């Protein structure tokens, strides 16, 4: 069950003609694109740097798991609200969740969980999620995001 109150970010997308399949509704793969676009907009909203320099900088963030449940079809020209949140940050990974609902009715179309891992770009090995990222997520999400802070050893 989705706790809609925990989702503080919304991005709207209008279904384009080339996104529907021969049955007349949005092709299942396009929902993953909608979630991805909304995740990037969420990060921008938080103030995270999202550009080619940051993506090719001192860290790589890769998607390692992408789960989706389809609830009801969306059709050409419908406006969809894509809601996004960060649900947890651990040592080297974080989860972003989303759900898509029809803007006019609020009917659930799909929901998603995407797990990301921070990597060192030189070794492709997991790297600790930076504190500045943890802080901006914590500032926006508050207690709705479970954040594990790295332990500081003396």
Short structural summary:
This protein has 154 residues and is of the alpha+beta class.
How would you describe this structure to a colleague?
With 154 residues, the protein is α+β, with helices and mostly antiparallel strands. It has helices at residues 28-46, 52-55, 131-141, and strands at 9-14, 60-70, 79-89, 93-102, 108-119, 146-147. Strands 1, 2, 3, 4, 5 and 6 form a 6-stranded mixed β-sheet that branches. The radius of gyration is 17 Å and the shape is globular.
Topology, pairings included?
Layout: E1 9-14, H1 28-46, H2 52-55, E2 60-70, E3 79-89, E4 93-102, E5 108-119, H3 131-141, E6 146-147
Parallel strand pairs: 3-6
Antiparallel strand pairs: 1-3, 2-5, 3-4, 4-5
């Amino acid at each position: 069950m989705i706790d809609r109150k925990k989702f503080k970010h919304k991005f709207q997308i209008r279904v384009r003609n080339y996104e529907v399949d021969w049955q007349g509704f949005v092709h299942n793969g396009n929902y993953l694109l909608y979630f991805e676009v909304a995740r990037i907009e969420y990060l921008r909203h938080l103030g995270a740097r999202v550009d080619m320099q940051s993506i090719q900088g001192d860290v790589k963030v890769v998607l390692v798991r992408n789960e989706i449940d389809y609830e009801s079809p969306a059709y050409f020209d419908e406006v969809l609200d894509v809601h996004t949140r960060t649900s947890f940050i651990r040592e080297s990974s974080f989860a972003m969740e989303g759900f898509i609902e029809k803007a006019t009715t609020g009917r659930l179309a799909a929901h998603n969980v995407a797990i990301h891992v921070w990597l060192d770009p030189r070794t492709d090995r997991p790297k600790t999620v930076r504190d500045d990222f943890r802080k901006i997520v914590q500032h926006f999400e508050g207690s709705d995001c479970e954040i594990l802070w790295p332990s500081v050893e003396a």
